[in-house]
Amino acid sequence: MLVVMRHDASSDEIQGVVRAIEAMGYRARPMPGAQRTTVGLVGNDGRVEEGRLVGLDGVLRVIHVSQPYKQVSREWCPEDTVVELDNGARIGGEDVVIMAGPCAVESREQILESARRVAATGATVLRGGAFKPRTSPYSFQGLGEEGLQLLAEARDETGLAVVTEAIDSEGVALVAEYADIIQIGARNMQNYSLLRAAGRAGRPVLLKRGMSATIKELLLAAEYIVAEGEPRVILCERGVRNFDTHARNLFDLTAVVTVKELSHLPIIADPSHGTGARSKVGPMARASVAAGADGLIVEVHPDPTTAASDGAQSLTPDQFDELMTEVEQIARSLGRGVAQPAAVALSG
Amino acid sequence: MLVVMRHDASSDEIQGVVRAIEAMGYRARPMPGAQRTTVGLVGNDGRVEEGRLVGLDGVLRVIHVSQPYKQVSREWCPEDTVVELDNGARIGGEDVVIMAGPCAVESREQILESARRVAATGATVLRGGAFKPRTSPYSFQGLGEEGLQLLAEARDETGLAVVTEAIDSEGVALVAEYADIIQIGARNMQNYSLLRAAGRAGRPVLLKRGMSATIKELLLAAEYIVAEGEPRVILCERGVRNFDTHARNLFDLTAVVTVKELSHLPIIADPSHGTGARSKVGPMARASVAAGADGLIVEVHPDPTTAASDGAQSLTPDQFDELMTEVEQIARSLGRGVAQPAAVALSG
Amino acid sequence: MLVVMRHDASSDEIQGVVRAIEAMGYRARPMPGAQRTTVGLVGNDGRVEEGRLVGLDGVLRVIHVSQPYKQVSREWCPEDTVVELDNGARIGGEDVVIMAGPCAVESREQILESARRVAATGATVLRGGAFKPRTSPYSFQGLGEEGLQLLAEARDETGLAVVTEAIDSEGVALVAEYADIIQIGARNMQNYSLLRAAGRAGRPVLLKRGMSATIKELLLAAEYIVAEGEPRVILCERGVRNFDTHARNLFDLTAVVTVKELSHLPIIADPSHGTGARSKVGPMARASVAAGADGLIVEVHPDPTTAASDGAQSLTPDQFDELMTEVEQIARSLGRGVAQPAAVALSG
Amino acid sequence: MLVVMRHDASSDEIQGVVRAIEAMGYRARPMPGAQRTTVGLVGNDGRVEEGRLVGLDGVLRVIHVSQPYKQVSREWCPEDTVVELDNGARIGGEDVVIMAGPCAVESREQILESARRVAATGATVLRGGAFKPRTSPYSFQGLGEEGLQLLAEARDETGLAVVTEAIDSEGVALVAEYADIIQIGARNMQNYSLLRAAGRAGRPVLLKRGMSATIKELLLAAEYIVAEGEPRVILCERGVRNFDTHARNLFDLTAVVTVKELSHLPIIADPSHGTGARSKVGPMARASVAAGADGLIVEVHPDPTTAASDGAQSLTPDQFDELMTEVEQIARSLGRGVAQPAAVALSG
Questions:
Q1: Is residue B251 packed enough to be buried (19+ CB in 10 Å), middle (13-18) or exposed (0-12)?
Q2: What pLDDT, in 10s, does the model give residues D250-296?
Q3: CA-based Rg of chain B, rounded to a whole angstrom?
Q4: CB within 8 A of D160, min separation 6: which ones?
Q5: What is the Cα–Cα distance from B105 to B103, expressed in whole angstroms?
Q6: Secondary structure (DSSP) of B230-289
Q7: Strand B27-32 relative to strand B37-42: parallel, antiparallel, unpaired?
Q8: Measured between CB atoms, which of D6, D33, D241 is closest to A42?
Q9: Which residues in A lie closer than 8 A to residue D43 (C-beta atoms)?
Q10: d(CA C146, CA C130)
Q11: Residue B16 domain boundaries
Q12: Cβ of D19 under 8 Å from any chain B Cβ?
C-alpha cells in the first residue's frame, strides 16, 4: 500500500503518516520524489483499513499495490482448479462443459423433456431454478422443494448432474441435499451470509458475477466461500449493467480472460442472461468458447413461448442442438473438446 | 403493454400475437401504423410475462406502458407517507430528519460519545452497524448482538432513535428487538428473502438503493416489503456505480426528485457513501437538502483516523456541528426545518 | 410514437395532446386502456420533436416505436452492404478481413517493417495513425502528412490497402488523397462536421463506436455519412466505458450481433482498444470472429516496448502470426475464410 | 509513476525495468516489499509513455502517482481563476452567475423575448445555439450566422453577455466575432482540433464535460485550451451516461466539489441537460448552488411546447423567475449572492 502525499505536504504531515502506519503494526518507508513524497506501507497482510490513512493531514490518496483476495488468486496457487462432479464432468479441465435447461422448473414433463433433449446433444449438467429471485413480488417464484425433487428425478433418468440456485441459508441446506452444484445468483453475489452458508454445505458452488461487480469483488466473494472451507468454486460471467439497452446486459467476455490471469478458479459463461435475446445466444456462446471459457450455461425450454420466466432468451431444443455443433467446432479449433454426454451416462 | 411488430410482419404473424394475448386472458388491440403495426395488450394486471410475446414470429419488441410496482406508487396513493418513530421524529413530513453516527459500533465509549455529540447539534436518529457486510472476508465484521445492546443503551441515554443494518433473516429478528428502524444495505437490495423477513418484523425499514439499481428496481424492492404488510418504508439514495473513480460512487441526487414523482414513500440521502470522502460530504449534504431529500444519514466518528471502517468518509463531531448549521439554513430557505433534538428528548 | 397519459389525465388534457399532434401535421389516435390512455401519433417521418409533447399537461412520457435512422437500417435495405477496396478486399462479404499495423506511424523503417510482417500472414489492410487524437496535449500527436506519405509507400510495396484517421475537416481531404479508408475515431463519433466532411470525400469510411455511444447513436452517426452520399461505411466495435478497470474498456461483442440485426452495414472489431492489454487481444480477437464480426483491426508493432503510443496493447509480429492461425481456424469452423493476402498482392 | 512487478518476477526482470526507465531519461528506484517489488520512476514530467513499461517481462501493472494535467491544476495555481466578462459578470468569484435562454435561436422574436425575460430576474449571460450538433441528421441544425447576429442584437438591447456553441474550426472564428464566450459542447469535449482553435480565438471558453468523460479527461481537455494561450476556461457539469433511464443523464454534482479540489478553474452546472425534464430542473439547480457551483446554465423558452429542440427540459419564463428566487436564498445561506442584472445593465 502506498500513501501519496500532497505536493505541499509538510514534513510533520509525512511523519504523521509514518507514525500512523507504525501504530498499525507495519513498517513505513517514505520515498521523496520530484513532485511529491510517497510513503510505502510494508508488510500489508490484507487487513489494513485504508480509511485510517486517507483522512490524515497532507494525504492525497492511497494506492493498493496488492490485491485483497488470497486463496483464490493465481499467485497463491498457480495450478488451475478443476471441479469434478459425481457424473465425471470436470469443470476447468481440458474439455468445455455444457450446462443447459430451463430458467425455472415448471412441471415434471417440462423438466424431464428438457433434460432428455439437452443430454442428447452435449450437456453434462442440467440447470433449472426451484427458488427464483424475481424483481417483482408478483412474478412466479418457483416450485420450491418440489422443483428440487423433479430435478433429482431428471438426474436419475439422464445421468446429468444438477445445478440450481439457493437464495437463503435455509435454501442452501435443501439445495445441497438434492443438487450437485449450488448456484449463487448475481443479485446475491454480495450476500455474505449466503456465501458463508454455501461455503459450509459440502457442495461445489457456481458463483455468478453481480450486475455491477468488479472482477476484484467477484474474486473476494469467491474468497468468502473458500475461506469457509469449500475450494470448489466455479465463477460465471453473465453480463453487467450498462448505459445501452440494445441487450439486457453487457456481456463482458474479456472478464473470462482476466479471471484466468488473476485466479486459478474455473470460469464459465452465461450467454442467455448475458444477452437476454434468443437471437444473440448462439453467436455469444460461440464467442465465449473462443475466448477461453471453461463451460457454458444456456437456457433451453421445450416451448419458450409458454415459459414462466426468461422465455425471450431461451433456446428451443432444436436451436440448442445446432449450437452444440458449432460450439464443438470452435472448441476443437482451440485444441479442446466438449465434455461428452456418453461418458456421463456411463459414469452416471 | 405494446407489442411492436416488424415492418414486414405478415397478417398471420399479427394474428399469432393476438391469439397469444387472448390465451393469456387479456384483450388484444391491433393498431396499424404508417411503418408498422403495434398490438396493444389491454387489461394488464402486472403479471404478464413478456417473454411469451417477445419470441413470437414477427415481433420486434415489447414496450411497457405501465410500471410493475403498485402499492408504493404515487398513482396508488397520492398522499406522502410519513414514517413516525417512537421518539417523535417524522420522516417524510415537513422537517428534515438527520440520522448520524459511526459506520460501525466499535465500543461502548465510541458509540455513547458519538450519540451524545450528534444528539447535541441536530440528529434525531443514531446510526451504527452491528452486523457489517464487508467486501473482504478478512475485514472487521461488526460486534453482533453486543453492538445492538450498546445502541440501545445510547438510545436510552440520549433519546435518539436507532437505525442499524440486518444482513440475514436471523439478524432481522434480533435487530427488530433492539432498533427503531431496520436497515437493508445496498448489497442486499435484491435479497428477496431478507426483504420479506424485514417486511414481517413490525418495524419501519430503511431501504438503501443497490449499487446499480434502477429507480424501478428500488421501488420493486420496496414493494416486496410493503407486500408483506409493512407500509413504513424509507428509501435512501447512496450513490451508484460509475466509470469515473473521482468519488467512491456517483451520488445520484436527481433520484430524490424522481422518487418523489413516482412514489409516496419518503427518501433520504447518504452523502457519506454517496461520495466516500470527508471533504465532499458537507457540500453534498447541503445539495441533498436543496434537492428535496426528507433527511440525511451521515457518518460521524469521534476519531475517524481510528475507525474500524469508513474512516475516510466520516466527519468529526466538530465538522458535523458546522454542517448542521448549514443544513438548517438551506432547509429554511426552502420553507422546511430540521427535526429538533429538543422535541425528541421530551418525547423520548 | 406513443404519448402515454397520466392515469388521472382529464379528457381536456387528452384533447390537448391530440390537437398538438394535429398541429404538427400528423394524425392522432387516442387508445383508452384499463389504467390509462395512450395517444398514438401516426405518420411519423422521423422529424417529430418529442419535446413538444413531453411537456404538455397530463403527459406521463413519450415512447418511440420507430428508430430514427433510415438509410443504414436493415428495414431500408435487407441486403448486406459489401465495401470493396482497390486491392480486392471485400469487407462485409464471406471472408473475414484483417486490418493490422502500429498505433501510430513513427518512422519509415517502422511502418515498412510492420506492413511487410502483417502482409505476410493474413492482413489485407494496413492501419497506422498519422494524426493522433491524444488525451493529453503533451503526448505525441503523429507525423501528419509525412505519415500519410509513408503509409502510401508501404501500400505500394506490399499491396495492402491503407486505413488511417482524420481528425478534422482539413485532415479529411489530406487523408482521402493518400488512404483507401478514412477512419473516424471514437472521440469524434459525434463530431458532425467531421462526419459530413468524411461523407463527401469519396472514400469508404471506418466509423468507430464512441466511448459511451449506444448502438442507436452509432447508427445515427453512420446515417450522417450516408446522408452526404457515401454508402460505404464500415462500423467498428472498440469497447465502451465501464465501472470496472480490469480492462481499458468493456469490449461489447454483442454489439456485433445487434448491428447485424438492425443494419446492413459491415461491422469489424478492435480487440486492441477493446481490451487495452496484449495478453487479452488474442482471446478477444478469436471471440470477435466467433461472434460474427466481418473483420478485425489489430495493433501490431515491430517492437512494442519502444512504441510512441499504445505499446501495452500492441502485439509483436510473432504474436500476430500465431493469432492469424487461430483466427483462420475459427473462421473456417463458421464456414468463412480469411481474405487472402496472396489475392491482394495480385490485384495490388 | 510506479511499476508493480509480479510476485514471482526475477531479478533480471526487475533490472529490465530499471534499464527501460533509465533509457527513457528518468531515474529508477526499486523498492522490495513483503509480497513483491515495486519500481518507482522518479522525475516524471508527464510525458512518460506507460506502454513502454506495461509490456515488459515481469510487470504486473503501472500506477500513476501524479496527474497528467499541469496548468489547470490547483497545485500549479492555488488561487481561483475568475473569468471576467465585458458586462461586468465575474465567473468564479463570490457571486453565482446565471446563464439562461433557449436551447436554439429560432427567430428574432423568440430570442429577444427570451433575453428580456431572463435579464429581468437574474441572468447576466444569454445562452442560445446557432450551430446545433444533433444526434440525427434530420433534426433542426440551427440558424447559423443569422442566429449569431440575433444573439448580438439581444445583447445590445439587454446588456446580457452571450454564450453560444462552436462545432468546428470555421465556426470558432465566427462565434468569436459575435459572442462573449465560446461554448464547446459535450460531444466535442475530445475534439482536439476544435479545442485548439478555441484556445486561439481570444475569447473565454465554456467547456462542457463529455457524456462519459472522467474528471481527469475534462481537465486534460481544458489543458488543451490553456496550452494554446487562453487561461479563461469555465468548466461545466451537465450529466453523464448511466444505466438508468429515469433521467436523460446522471447529473454528477459531486464533480463540482472534485473539480474545485483539483483545479483553480471555475465550474458551473447545467441542470437542464443534467436531468432532461422540466420538473427536475428546479430542484437540481438549487442543489447545484448548494454544492458550490459558480453558476448555472438553464434552458428557458418563451413557449417550450413549440421549441425546435429540448422543449421537454426548458423552463417557462415564469418558472425561471420562481427558480431565481429560490436560488438566491440558497446562495445567501452560503454567504454568496447572485450576480446582479442591474449592475450588468449599468456596465453593459
A1: buried
A2: 999 999 999 999 999 999 999 999 999 999 999 999 999 999 999 99
A3: 23
A4: D87, D115, D118, D119, D123, D124, D125, D126, D154, D341, D344, D348
A5: 7
A6: ---EEEEE--B--S--SSSSB--THHHHHHHHHBSS-EEE-HHHHH-SHHHHHHHHHHHH
A7: antiparallel
A8: D33
A9: 34
A10: 8
A11: 2-63
A12: no
Parallel/antiparallel/unpaired status of strands A161-165 and A181-184: parallel
> Is B72 a member of any domain?
no
CA separation for the pair C335, C344 (Å, rounded) = 21
Please report, for residues B2, C202, C298, C341, the alpha-carbon distance to residue C344 in angstroms, rounded to integers and kept in the order given: 51, 22, 18, 5
CB neighbours (10 Å) of residue D345? 15
**In sequence order, what are the residues at sequence separation of 6 or more whose Cβ sits closer than 8 angstroms to the Cβ of residue D76?**
D70, D264
Dihedral of the CA atoms C13, C18, C19, C25 (nearest 10)?
A: 150
Phi-psi region of B65 (alpha: psi -120 to 50; beta: other; left: phi over 0): alpha
Angstrom distance (rounded) from CA C338 to CA C322: 14
- Assess whether A122 and A59 both reside in one domain: no
Locate D263 and state its grid cell: 483545479
Long-range contacts formed by A142-147: CB under 8 A, 24+ apart: A142/A104, A142/A105, A143/A104, A143/A105, A143/A106, A145/A174, A147/A104, A147/A105, A147/A111
Nearest to C250 among A245, A247, A250 (CB): A250
Residue C73 resides in a domain: no
Residues 27-56 of B with CB under 8 A from C: 29, 31, 33-36, 38, 40, 42-44
B277 occurs within a structural domain: yes
Shortest CA distance to C268 belongs to which of C250, C283, C253?
Answer: C253
Nearest to D52 by CA among B58, A296, A214, C278: C278
ipTM, 2 decimals? 0.92
Residue A50 identity: E
CATH number of the domain residue B308 falls in: 3.20.20.70
Rounded Cα distance, B218 and C76, in Å = 40
In the structure grid, which three cell numbers stand for residue C278, read together? 496484449
Question: In chain C, whose CA is at the least distance from the CA of D228?
Answer: C137
Tell me: do A109 and A57 sit in the same domain.
no
Residue C22: helix, strand or coil by DSSP?
A: helix
Do C160 and C119 touch, CB atoms closer than 8 A? yes
The DSSP line for A58-112 is TEEEEE--S-S--TTBTTT--SPP-EEPTTS-EETSSSBEEEEE-SB---HHHHH
Residue of B212, B275, B280 lying closest to D243 (CB–CB): B212
DSSP-derived secondary structure for B157-220 = HH--EEEEE--SHHHHHHHHHH-SEEEE-GGGTT-HHHHHHHHTSSS-EEEEPPTT--HHHHHH
What type of residue is C246?
H
Do C248 and C102 reside in the same domain of the chain? yes
Q: Are B136 and B44 part of one and the same domain?
A: no
Same domain for C89 and C58: no
Partners of B176 in the β-ladder: none
Interacting residues of A11 by C-beta distance below 8 A, sequence separation 6+? none
Considering the domain architecture, whether residues C224 and C335 belong to the same structural domain is answered as: yes
From chain A, pick out residues whose CB is under 8 angstroms from the CB of D31: 29, 31, 40
| Same-domain check for residues D125 and D183 | yes
- Domain contains A75: no
How do residues D83-135 score in pLDDT, each as one tens digit? 999 999 999 999 999 999 999 999 999 999 999 999 999 999 999 999 998 88
Inter-CA distances, C61 with A23, C17, C54, D162, Å = 58, 12, 6, 33
How many angstroms separate the CA of residue B78 from the nearest CA in chain C?
11
| pTM > 0.90: yes or no | yes
pLDDT tens digits for range D150-204: 999 999 999 999 999 999 988 999 999 999 999 999 999 999 999 999 999 999 9
Cβ contacts of C333 on chain A, cutoff 8 Å: 326, 329-330, 332-333
For residue D1, name the pLDDT band (cuts at 50, 70, 90). Answer: confident
Three-state DSSP at C98 gives strand
